[in-house]
């Protein structure tokens, strides 16, 4: 698969910059699930040593974005249908806790206003697919941040790369899952103070997304 060359880096904080560049290339869809990640090729594109690339790839393995395949070759992680469903089950648990905490919070009204602004941002017709994914991920991260639970946010962030790679791999067929209308019921339930309803809406939201993303024939 032909890919656009990655940008060369200056010599400052090379490991961190290489890591950021490779992570962005994977989560942005430049490298897709199953693509081989060769140290020599990547080092040449980035203008760094193979050792620097190796360290960055090792970190991405820990994040679950890169896996070791046959003969130790590293590839972008590819999730099975079962793994995608498991990933979104964990999301549902985390974001279900977030809405519980939000409803119990004294800052619920303010949080609802902030979330409604984020929902309206999802329907910007002038953005491309990558920016649309950015807006969708930002809404869900915001939901967790507004809960006030820092450990919840940390746990969600650890899944974010895998979530994004999964969404990017399915392409624009999944755009309806990122519309404002698809997210509004979550905010409505929080505003109403309906804990059971809010958790149920989040659960259904994640189940539907998982089924669409796990479908091997998204056009079917």
Provide structural commentary.
With 220 residues, the protein is mainly alpha-helical. It folds into two domains: 63 residues, Winged helix-like DNA-binding domain superfamily/Winged helix DNA-binding domain (Arc Repressor Mutant, subunit A), CATH 1.10.10; 134 residues, Four Helix Bundle (Hemerythrin (Met), subunit A) (Up-down Bundle), CATH 1.20.120.530. It is built from nine helices and two strands; from the N terminus they run H-H-H-E-E-H-H-H-H-H-H. The chain is elongated, with a radius of gyration of 19 Å.
Summarize the topology.
Elements: H1 14-27, H2 39-46, H3 50-62, E1 66-68, E2 74-76, H4 81-104, H5 108-121, H6 129-145, H7 150-170, H8 180-192, H9 195-214
Antiparallel strand pairs: 1-2
Number of strand segments: 2
Oligomer: single chain
**Category by helix and strand content:** mainly alpha
CATH C-level class of the largest domain is: Mainly Alpha
As laid out across the biggest beta sheet, the strand order is: 1-2
Total helix count? 9
Shape: elongated
CATH superfamily of the largest domain: GntR ligand-binding domain-like
Unreliable stretches covering 5 or more consecutive residues: none
Q: Please give the radius of gyration in angstroms.
A: 19 Å
> Between the first and last Cα atoms, what is the distance in angstroms?
25 Å
The CATH architecture designation of the largest domain is Up-down Bundle
Strand content: under 5%
Q: Average pLDDT, to the nearest integer?
A: 88
Largest sheet: 2 strands, antiparallel
The CATH topology of the largest domain, please? Four Helix Bundle (Hemerythrin (Met), subunit A)
Query: N-to-C SSE series?
Result: HHHEEHHHHHH
Domain count, please report it: 2
Helix content: 55-70%
């Amino acid at each position: 698969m032909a890919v656009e060359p990655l940008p060369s880096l200056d010599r400052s904080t090379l490991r961190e910059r290489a890591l950021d560049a490779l992570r962005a290339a994977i989560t942005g869809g430049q490298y897709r699930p199953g693509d081989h990640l060769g140290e020599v090729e990547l080092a040449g594109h980035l203008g760094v040593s193979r050792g620097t690339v190796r360290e960055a790839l090792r970190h991405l393995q820990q994040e679950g974005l890169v896996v070791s395949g046959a003969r130790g070759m590293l590839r972008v992680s590819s999730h099975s249908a079962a793994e995608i469903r498991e990933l979104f089950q964990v999301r549902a648990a985390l974001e279900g806790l977030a809405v519980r905490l939000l409803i119990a919070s004294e800052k619920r009204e303010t949080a609802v206003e902030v979330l409604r602004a984020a929902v309206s941002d999802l329907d910007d017709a002038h953005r491309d697919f990558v920016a649309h994914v950015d807006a969708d991920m930002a809404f869900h991260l915001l939901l967790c941040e507004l809960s006030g639970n820092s450990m919840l946010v940390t746990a969600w962030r650890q899944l974010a790369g895998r979530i994004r790679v999964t969404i990017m791999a399915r392409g624009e067929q999944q755009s309806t899952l990122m519309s404002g209308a698809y997210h509004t019921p979550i905010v409505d339930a929080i505003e109403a103070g309906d804990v059971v309803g809010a958790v149920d809406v989040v659960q259904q939201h994640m189940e539907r997304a998982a089924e669409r993303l796990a479908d091997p024939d998204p056009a079917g």
